[in-house]
Write a structure and sequence with these properties.
The protein has 183 residues and is an all-alpha fold. The chain has helices at 3-14, 20-33, 53-65, 71-81, 89-95, 104-111, 117-129, 135-140, 148-160, 166-174, 179-182. The chain is elongated. It starts with a helix and ends with a helix. The mean pLDDT is 86.
């Protein structure tokens, strides 16, 4: 099957009126074809909360496996938009095995300053799973985060980064009046 067949399969996946089982099967076939360009037209479905979760998950896994260049920015967009936690975005971003020089890290570090504490928490959680040489520097600024869940998670992330000051911050966390910080 050539590029025309891949495009037809992608069109079938994107067709909301189509049967879900057939749409999911089309994603499986696209995976076997190993055609990253064919996924271009269906990646946007991952961001659509009205789309069926199972299909969104399959498309995302396909794009990760094919190492589609837009996957990291797509995952960051999912974090920013709170497009549902069932996709386990942080772990999928780790699976992308980003290069330390990737511009996505600048975006992630910027999201640590987001006004929404849930987004800050997701980014801190990401750095519990993924190491980066500059992460500890950015995380240290959130030891005093206004939200206790973020403060507590920062200590874990600093330890995961191998930050020598992590123990000092853990001791400081035990003195925090909020129970969420200690848990």
């Amino acid at each position: 099957m050539g590029p025309v067949g891949s495009k037809q399969l992608a069109a079938l996946v994107a067709q909301r009126s189509g049967e879900l089982q057939l749409r999911c099967f089309a994603v499986v076939v696209l995976k076997q074809l190993q055609d990253p360009k064919a996924t271009d037209n269906i990646l946007a479905l991952v961001l659509d909360p009205k789309e069926v979760l199972a299909l969104r998950e399959q498309i995302l896994l396909l794009a990760i496996e094919l190492r589609h260049p837009r996957v990291p920015e797509l995952l960051v967009a999912l974090i920013e938009r709170h497009v549902d936690d069932k996709l386990d975005v942080e772990k999928k971003l780790v699976a992308c095995q980003l290069d330390e020089q990737s511009p996505i890290f600048a975006k992630l570090f910027g999201l640590l300053e987001h006004k929404d504490w849930l987004i800050r928490k997701k980014i801190v959680n990401l750095f519990c799973l993924m190491r980066h040489p500059q992460a500890a520097h950015h995380l240290r600024t959130h030891v005093e985060d206004p939200h206790p869940e973020v403060r507590g998670l920062v200590c874990l992330a600093l330890a995961a980064q191998g930050d020598p000051q992590a123990y000092q911050f853990v001791a400081q966390a035990w003195e925090d009046p909020a129970p969420q910080v200690k848990s």
